[in-house]
């Protein structure tokens, strides 16, 4: 069991997401920085769908009530086990009564705690991830609170051998205030003028403070629509389309001076011109970016998108192999 | 006749394919989207993670490590061609009554707070939409909005949010509204909104960009499954259902809310078989026949 002594700013249970209900308006949820989260599981030899904790900006204080192995990954944070500093990206053995304290997250937004065997908290619609929009009961519908007690599964065989291992430096994510984000253009791009597409790709965008796990808002550039009538049924503004199922990562242009990029707590069903989709590895990067960070967009083909995805997958596979060889 | 333009397919990032049946809202595009996605769901293809019908389009999420995106695209194009046959466009469905307090005081309070987002509406979405559609009398506008049944074309946005499109109304008479230029950060639960040609009931508190014209007295989402109609699903709406809005007074609104709170409210529901073919051929006459006794 994990006993939450202090909950931190916004600590939630996350796995890789809830699938099959997006068409009923249920967001996928799941770890915002899926890459860091999966590296944690890889380091422990956990299957990728296991649940862990996502900690935002200020971490929690947690007492372990089980002998197991845990690892912190994601945004750099000051972390202590029984008052002694411990590094991120390195599995540590813990015993009943051990107290983990995760402090302020300086660069980036989210740090992850994964534990061997994963959390044994309840599932709803096939996932343990919290969903704030849903009205689900208990920890499925809210952030963790002081006094929460989260059951843990049994640690997996051989996991003690992972203690002290790490991931190669090259596979660790970089936390920067200057981001390069790749997108595949499409969906309703034809409603954006040529000048508008240039504006999207050649200007620097700044992440607005009103950004969260649902969506990031960006300002600073300008994307001009084509001067043509909106199609029947969409509303009357040149930024309207007949409502579509937005993909996660969808780059929405609600007006000429704002971009909205949908993250894991986002849902489909919206009627603003959407001009492309951020590739999945870059959604992890974007979700870790602090407000006021600057973003440059790069258009890629779908083939290039798969290559970039593959690079990240190979990093995770390398860590998995090093675990299996132990 | 039901004739479809060629569907436009797009890769979206590395995990989605988007299919646009038509750019403009045509109810037959939605019949086709529902028909294709029903078929895809039935086939249960490995690697297909989400199958999402929408108003005039649909979205597929897939795992590119389990299924080749190019093979999937070919497969979708094949089904798209097969499903242009109107005899396929047939659904078991329900007509459900939604009592609405139009031009209510609850949404008014919200609208006033967000007046800065669209100054042209002068803090009154109801009158803004009414005037934009050429009405001067509030009761006439309410009668016009609540007359047709609204076909549930898709869900999305927040758990249980369903888009309703009026059936049997000539296109030039369909009520329409612009959306807020930038979304509100709050909308009360069960507010009735209109955006483009669609009407929605907000299932829970949320952001929103539709013009708010009333309050539904009944919930459309019940994850606790406390009301009998929600025993099989958290969601009142299913794509293909018909919703009929019934204008109620402030007093009726609060009487129904009490029944809902006591969990004794019974929704008025009629089961029907909906045929797109018959709707195409008979139009309004077919709708009146479906609505008989309701």
Automatic annotation (TrEMBL), chain A:
User: Quick check: keyword Hydrolase in the entry?
Assistant: yes
| One Pfam family in the UniProt entry | CT_A_B
Q: Where are the transmembrane segments?
A: none
Q: Which SMART domains match?
A: AHS2
In terms of Gene3D superfamilies, this protein maps to:
Cyclophilin-like (2.40.100.10)
Keyword Hydrolase included in the entry's annotation? yes
Q: Which UniProt keywords apply?
A: ATP-binding, Hydrolase, Nucleotide-binding
Record-annotated Carboxyltransferase domain positions: 23-315
MF-aspect GO terms: hydrolase activity
Q: What is this protein called?
A: Allophanate hydrolase 2 subunit 2
From TrEMBL, chain B:
Q: Name one Pfam family in it.
A: CT_C_D
Is Membrane found in the keyword set? no
- What Gene Ontology molecular function terms does this protein carry? hydrolase activity
Q: Does the keyword Cytoplasm apply?
A: no
Domain of life the protein comes from: Bacteria
User: Which keywords appear in this protein's UniProt record, sorted alphabetically?
Assistant: ATP-binding, Hydrolase, Nucleotide-binding
Carboxyltransferase domain spans which residues?
7-228
Q: Which PANTHER family match?
A: 5-OXOPROLINASE SUBUNIT B
Report the protein name in the record. Allophanate hydrolase 2 subunit 1
Where does this protein come from, organism-wise?
Bacillus badius
Starting at the broadest rank, the lineage of the source organism is:
Bacteria, Bacillati, Bacillota, Bacilli, Bacillales
């Amino acid at each position: 069991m994990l006993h939450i002594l202090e909950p931190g700013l916004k600590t939630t249970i996350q796995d890789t997401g809830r699938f099959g209900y997006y068409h009923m308006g249920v967001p996928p949820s799941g770890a915002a920085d899926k890459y860091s989260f999966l590296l944690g599981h890889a380091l422990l030899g956990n299957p990728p769908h296991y649940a862990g904790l996502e900690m935002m900006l200020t971490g929690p204080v947690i007492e372990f009530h089980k002998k197991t192995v845990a690892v912190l990954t994601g945004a750099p944070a000051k972390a202590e086990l029984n008052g002694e500093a411990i590094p991120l990206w390195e599995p540590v053995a813990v015993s009943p009564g051990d107290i983990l304290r995760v402090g302020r997250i300086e660069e980036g937004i989210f740090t992850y705690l994964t534990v061997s065997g994963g959390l044994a908290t309840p599932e709803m619609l096939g996932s343990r991830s919290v969903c704030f929009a849903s009205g689900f009961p208990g920890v499925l519908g809210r952030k963790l609170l002081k006094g929460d007690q989260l059951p843990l599964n049994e640690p997996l065989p051989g996991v003690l051998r992972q203690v002290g291992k790490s991931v190669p430096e090259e596979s660790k994510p970089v936390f920067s205030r200057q981001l390069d984000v790749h997108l595949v253009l499409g969906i309703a791009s034809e409603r954006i003028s040529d000048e508008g597409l240039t504006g999207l790709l050649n200007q620097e965008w700044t992440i607005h403070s009103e950004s969260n796990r649902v969506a990031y808002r960006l300002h600073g550039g300008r994307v001009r629509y084509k001067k043509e009538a909106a199609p029947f049924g969409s509303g009357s503004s040149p930024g309207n389309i007949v409502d579509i199922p937005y993909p996660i990562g969808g780059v929405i242009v609600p007006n000429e001076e704002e971009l909205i990029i949908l993250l894991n707590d986002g849902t489909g069903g919206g009627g603003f011109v959407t001009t492309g989709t951020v590739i999945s590895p870059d959604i992890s990067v974007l979700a870790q970016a602090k407000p006021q960070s600057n973003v440059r967009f790069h258009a890629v083909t779908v083939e290039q998108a798969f290559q970039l995805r593959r690079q990240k997958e190979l990093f995770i596979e390398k860590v998995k192999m090093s675990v299996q060889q132990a | 006749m039901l004739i479809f333009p060629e569907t436009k397919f797009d890769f979206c990032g590395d995990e989605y394919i988007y299919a646009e049946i038509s750019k403009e809202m045509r109810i037959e595009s939605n019949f086709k989207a529902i028909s294709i996605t029903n078929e895809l769901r039935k086939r249960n293809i490995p690697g297909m993670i989400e199958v999402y019908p929408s108003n005039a389009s649909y979205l597929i999420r897939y795992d590119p490590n389990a299924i080749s995106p190019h093979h999937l695209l070919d497969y979708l194009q094949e089904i798209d061609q097969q499903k242009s046959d109107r005899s396929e466009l047939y659904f078991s469905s329900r007509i459900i009554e939604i009592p609405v307090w139009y031009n209510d005081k609850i949404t008014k309070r919200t609208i006033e707070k967000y007046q800065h987002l669209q100054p042209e509406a002068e803090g009154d979405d109801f009158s803004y939409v009414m005037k934009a559609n050429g009405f001067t009398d509030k009761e006439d506008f309410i009668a016009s909005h609540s007359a047709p049944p609204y076909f549930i074309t898709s869900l999305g946005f927040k758990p249980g949010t369903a888009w309703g499109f009026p059936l049997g109304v000539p296109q030039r008479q369909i009520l329409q509204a612009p959306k807020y230029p930038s979304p509100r950060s709050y909308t009360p639960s069960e507010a009735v909104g209109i955006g483009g040609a669609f009407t929605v009931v907000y299932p829970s508190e949320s952001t929103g960009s539709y013009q708010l014209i009333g309050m539904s007295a009944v919930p459309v989402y019940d994850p606790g499954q406390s009301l009998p109609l929600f025993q099989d699903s958290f969601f009142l709406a299913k794509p293909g259902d018909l919703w009929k809005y019934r204008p109620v007074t402030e007093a009726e609104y609060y009487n129904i809310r009490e029944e809902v709170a006591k969990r004794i409210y019974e929704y008025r529901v009629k089961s029907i078989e909906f045929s797109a073919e018959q709707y195409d051929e008979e139009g309004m006459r077919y709708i009146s026949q479906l609505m008989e006794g309701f």
